[in-house]
Design brief:
Layout (H helix, E strand, L loop, with lengths): L2 E9 L2 E9 L3 E5 L6 H13 L22 E3 L7 E4 L1 H7 L10 H5 L3 H21 L3 H16 L13 H6 L16 H4 L4 H11 L18 H13 L2 H17 L5 H11 L7 H25 L3 H4 L5 H6 L14 H18 L2 H32 L4 E7 L4 E7 L9 H4 L2 H19 L3 E5 L7 H12 L10 E5 L3 H9 L10 E8 L2 E6 L5 E3 H11 L3 H14 L5 H10 L6 E4 L2 E4 L2 H12 L7 H9 L1 H10 L3 H11 L7 H12 L6 E3 L9 H13 L1
Parallel strand pairs: 2-11, 3-9, 3-10, 5-8, 8-9
Antiparallel strand pairs: 1-2, 1-4, 6-7, 10-11, 12-15, 13-14
Length: 696
Amino acid sequence: MSTYNVKIQNCNSIETAEIAITKGTLNIKYGPNGLGKSTIARSILAAVTRDGTLQNLKPFKFREHVGQHDPLVQGVDEIGSALVFDDTYVSQFVFQRDEVLKNSFDIFVRNDEFRAAMGEIEDLFSGIKSAFLENKDLDAAISDLKEVCDAFGVTKTGALSKASKGYKAFGSGNKIENIPAELTAFESFIKSENPAKWIGWQTKGNEFLELSDNCPYCASDIKEPEKKIARQVSKEYDSKAVEHLNGLQAVILRLGKYFEQSCREKLEVITKSKVELSPEEINFLSALRGDVETLISKLQALRSISFFALRDVGKIEDEIAKLTIDLTLLDKLNSTETVLIVDPINKKLAGLIGRLGELKGKIKKHKRQIERSIHENQESINGFLKSAGYKYQVTIQPESESYKMKLVHQDMNQHIETAAQHLSYGEKNAFALVLFMHQVLSAKPGLVVLDDPVSSFDKTKKFAILSELFRGKASLRNTTVLMLTHDIEPAIDIIRSVKNQFQHPKPTADFLSSRSGVITETPIFESDIQTFAQVCSWNVQKLSDAVIKCIYLRRHFEIVDDLGTEYNYLANLLHARPVPILKTAAGDVPMTDEDIAKAYAGIARFIPDFDYQAILTIIQNRDEMVRRYDEATVGYDKLQLFRIFNSSSDKDGVLQKLVNETFHIENEYVMQLNPHKFDNVPEYVVQECDRLVRAA
């Protein structure tokens, strides 16, 4: 298989990193915390997407060096696109309020098959939609008709609402056309282009009339009669009602050509009337509104006709037939101009009705395809949730113009809107990983990066997730995947324990190490994964340093649960006891000559030249131990030597605890990597030990 040889420079703590990514398979990169795995993920994503964020990774020590030591990623030009799974993905894309995963429609339903079927159906609708396409006059007419319809709101009984804009504008008569005699002096203002603005301005000035005998507008002398006339404007006119009136008059004027002649004449009389609307006029406006509303609803339905509008219809032929616009039944709108708009649309609709059988067949076929896709996705995700022991399920439900995935609990019928608040951290992470897999299958990126995806799970869930992600037809098994992790178990499972289940194609695993900002990788083969007892035995046989050999041999006895005299004798030695002891219920007692002889015989089977006193002399000599510490090239060995000669010191309790509990007592994994080939002790731990050794 071909590979991407990626080189990363000057990104956060990484000065240089070189990693190989085999195409079309899973690439596991295992390394300790603090190495820079998340930086590797971020730098590759930034370089592939070219989103400008790569510069954000410039090391702090180089931030003042403009144009120098800039971040650089090479070897990713052919990747094309990438998706990354990390904490940011979980927080930004998963567990939205109205759907489990953002854009779930695009991920779970809108596949190539869906798009092809939609294209065929849309072709049948293209004739009708062409009548609306770039028809500015029709768009303007629909907009104006909708404004009139909205202005003349009706009550639940169908009567014209007195709270509507239209009633407020014309209900008490048109006082713009019929100015009271005492206010004729203001005619040019009242009949201006924007009378509401003038009325509002004039009304605000009235509150200052009592402050002086001077006009609050022009400061000239003003008497009480003039003040009374000024106050009359606000009594006769309401600025908001005038605003509605002025706007509606303009709309009705534009729409005049769409009204039948007698309707137009009646409307003109009503909108210019001096007096309050009569019951007959109110009924007329209500009936006109009904015709307008019917025409708008049909035009909008025709303009938006689609698969989604018809997918849940029982009889498509009846629904299509209802879209025909019959102006003889909308007599108030039956004008020449309206006919010119409606007739071409009706003709296009008639053409669609002529192909109704074809349309019905394509819609039914498309619905079956969608149902199959939904079923497969739901079954896949719900199967995983069940196998992982979660009491949740997903359901993909239709929305007005799409489909959305919802989360439900087995104890509740309704979907959960606040899933993030109900799921535990592990549940969210596991669920998000499986959803991410489906997004990858939909988007088909050139590279998938999993940033420490499974380290927080127990063994059972880890395997369930890995199995879901990399086995079966609907999985990532043929996708180029880079998994960065500080958890050795995925490599153990996939490379050795259950390797036969993850061989199509064969995955790779590498160990990442970092020294002075330079990250290198070492391939992990099946033979490298051993029990820790095997690791200890190998190091006892192959290493030359007597103290380190004793360290590994003691660990060997410990790991095979042989805590007899050999183990105790070595423990005494490594604790630098001149007289070896045995711990008993009665207290510490010296080991007998017989115990010591038995211990010697058992140890000699592994270390033939073992000499307690000679090694004790070395351990008691701090300078000699420091020399051996300096000469050790493996972090694990350094820490064990440090632990021996620093065990009585309390200068740095935190580090001593870290060494004792993390690197002295092995983790729970049965299988391990030999630290002499795969040095997994973080560099910062070794550096801190170095500091304490030098400070002593």
